[in-house]
Amino acid sequence: MQKRFLKYCESIGLNPDVKVLVAVSAGLDSMALLHLFRLSGFSVQVAHCNFNLRGEESDGDEVFVKEICAKHDISIHTKHFDTEDYANSNSISIQMAARELRYTWFEELRSAFDLDYTATAHHQDDQIETLLINLSRGTGLKGMRGILPQQGTLIRPLLFTDRPALETWMHHHDFIFREDSSNASVKYARNKLRHQVIPTLKELNPSLSKTYQENAERFGSASENLAFFYEKQRAVLILKKEGAHHIVLSELLKHPSPMDVLFYFIDPFGFNDWDAIENLIHAESGKVVSSTTHELLKDRDVFVLREKQKEVQQSFHITEDQKHLSDPISVGFSVQEAKGFNPNRGPGCAVLDFDKIQFPLVLRRWQKGDVFKPLGMQGKKKVSDFFIDQKMSLFEKENVWLLCSSGEIVWIVGHRIDERFKLVETTQKVYLVQLNGA
């Protein structure tokens, strides 16, 4: 067992010089992991969580782990958690609460004590449970990778073996451990699979643990290969524009399964309503699907992906002597003599007749029904129609600001000034408004 352990550690990039934080509960799996690390000469520290869910049994586990660590002169860190309160406060299950609490604490410890890795005792039987749970809940190729041997600084050095082999090894060395009474309950999904489903599957295939681990590794390799080819498509499929990602629909639809490609690129942003996203492909322009952090907009021939915008104040006043505004956008203001002034500027600048402006100016969001007189036109035009002419997406419209004087639109910032405020032959002073960076 120890030779296989060392060989597996080497295969996932661990050498004997690394320093490891070992998560130890007191049960068979984690005690086996601790002894394997200890006997193999690794520098280890132990982290033990008391979730206060099993009363005296939880306290007994803590005492037991402390005694083992004291016997072998191993540094130990323990922490008590109010798991039920955390679960209730965050509206999550007890299992999810315990997971979040322990992994957050493990990383804090690892970083604080300058350790290289955190090791957990997941083995091949845990892999079977994970794959079956993922399949039951619905998953793609990514979910079929199961438990990974390494994710950043988190390692699972027991994925080379299963629980019966660990139990045999522990008994052979007379290493003691404690049984968690909750493991016998079929209240939880994992235990139900462990006690009712997996034994039947092992009757069909006695090597089920090894088979599922090999399957997970194959799915992992397939997922990596697929990601390799998808990344080669990124430059063609996705264009960056004004802080958002534009996914080109025509390129997306060239793939045999557009949804799988789209899933790959937007999965990191928390989207999970895949029916809504699939409908978005054929939806009319302007439809939006949201995750907790991002929004995906169908805009003509592209999907626009952006981070959700924070609510900002709707209007800002600008005084005559004001030289700069930094929020919500960065704008500079100056007054210059018209004589000798060169009015040729880009769209990031508004060149205005100072005497036609009344202060304070107002910078505000556009509103339905807004009209202005675009430079070069005699008649008025709805701002919304101007947006259509400019082929602006819903997200781009939301980011537009208007500079106004006495209720009249002076400048659609970054786009077009109003005809009534342009320079004329009699202009004495120029009011120059310039977006920083323009």
Task: Tell me what the structure shows.
This protein is an alpha+beta fold and 438 residues long. The chain has 3 domains: 2-219, Rossmann fold, CATH 3.40.50.620; 242-307, no CATH class; 315-435, Phenylalanyl-trna Synthetase, Chain B, domain 3 (Phenylalanyl-tRNA Synthetase, Chain B, domain 3). The chain is 38% helix and 22% strand. Strands 3-2-1-4-6-5 form a 6-stranded mixed beta sheet, sandwiched between helices. A 5-stranded antiparallel beta sheet has the order 7-8-11-10-9. A 5-stranded antiparallel beta sheet has the order 12-16-19-20-21, with no helix packed on it. A hairpin with a 2-residue loop joins strand 7 and strand 8. Helix 6 (124-137) packs across helix 8.
In CATH, the homologous superfamily of the largest domain goes by the name HUPs
- Helix- and strand-based class? alpha+beta
How much helicity do the residues have? Answer: 25-40%
Question: What is the architecture of the largest domain at the second tier of CATH?
Answer: 3-Layer(aba) Sandwich
Rg over CA atoms: 31 Å
Q: What's the total count of β strands?
A: 22
Q: List segments where confidence is low: pLDDT < 50 over at least 5 consecutive residues.
A: none
**Chain-averaged pLDDT:** 92
Number of helices: 14
Features:
438 residues, 5-stranded antiparallel sheet, alpha+beta, 22% strand, 6-stranded mixed sheet, Rossmann fold, 14 helices, Phenylalanyl-tRNA Synthetase, Chain B, domain 3, single chain
